[in-house]
């Protein structure tokens, strides 16, 4: 894909060529007018390229909006509530928030510290941590290569991807593609559909980061949390959940059972992020700044669309999503938007602890993706 910055370079080169040509022909226009006109002509000539990139970017934005709309489906919510041990997780959350207060014999200083922590970790926030733990440890499973569906063998070799000849079940589960594997023991083929239906994922309970974030975001919504589905353009997906007690959005990665460690990917995994876009029924937001300590470097890797166009388009989509809300609801969200913009305007803060490389997936798979961390 041609980056916008490459388009700008081409436009500049084309403009210089036009100016040189006009100079040789002794045209009377001033040099400033010539340059301005040449740049305009060059950019217009390249408009079909940038228009195509906007269309592709818009398609991804619309896909994210549709993804989040699916979490509001009554059947999806009911399906999630039927598999989540809601009362148990609420009890775990309540117990966890209470134990932060420490032992009865603690001195004044430690009690004050505990009270401060209590303000940060409400029972509701503790429920979120319990949901993350349950999802990771008890509910969902990671898949590098699926076991053989015929003999249960584990020596599987990838033999291709199917995108057209899908079964009825795969189409119903909204599989975007089906990975094909051959068993080394029985030599039969196993199909691994990459389902996009969160309801179907509650049934299969397995996948990679896309499936994990998809199913977890639905579970968070079923638990009554305000949740965002976050898409990282460098191939990862996670969730953000709004903490009413802290009045801010918390990064949640169900694959890693991690909460509120947004620098995990840049500082821990060693990822070179570009775009991180958060989607919910309340709006679409560029939250890249939350996940990086060097936004200037991130801008160098962002070249699919013009930044002013992106800001304008996200604002338009957010207004579109909020159009059916009550004025009082919109006003409250706009106040929260201001707070979040202020937060994103400040440098991302290191959590003060070691952030590991990626933990999920085989060592070979993580190494191939370059996500073992800077020290690997």
Describe this structure in words.
- The chain has 376 residues and is α+β, with helices and mostly antiparallel strands.
- The protein folds into two domains: 1-12 and 47-99 and 122-140 and 208-359, C8orf32 fold; 144-206, N-terminal domain of TfIIb, CATH 2.20.25.10.
- The chain is 51% helix and 14% strand.
- The protein contains 14 helices and eleven strands.
- The chain has helices spanning 4-24, 31-70, 74-83, 86-99, 108-120, 123-139, 168-172, 198-204, 209-222, 264-269, 295-300, 307-322, 327-344, 363-368; strands at residues 141-142, 156-162, 178-183, 189-193, 206-207, 227-232, 236-243, 248-253, 258-259, 276-280, 283-286.
- It has a six-stranded antiparallel β-sheet. Strands 2-3-4 form a three-stranded antiparallel β-sheet, with no helix packed on it.
- A hairpin with a 4-residue loop joins strand 7 and strand 8 (248-253).
- Helix 1 runs antiparallel to helix 2, helix 3 crosses helix 9 (209-222) and helix 8 (198-204) packs across helix 9 (209-222).
- The longest helix is centred in the first third of the chain and has 40 residues, at 31-70.
- 27% of the residues are buried.
- Residues 101-119 have low confidence and may be disordered.
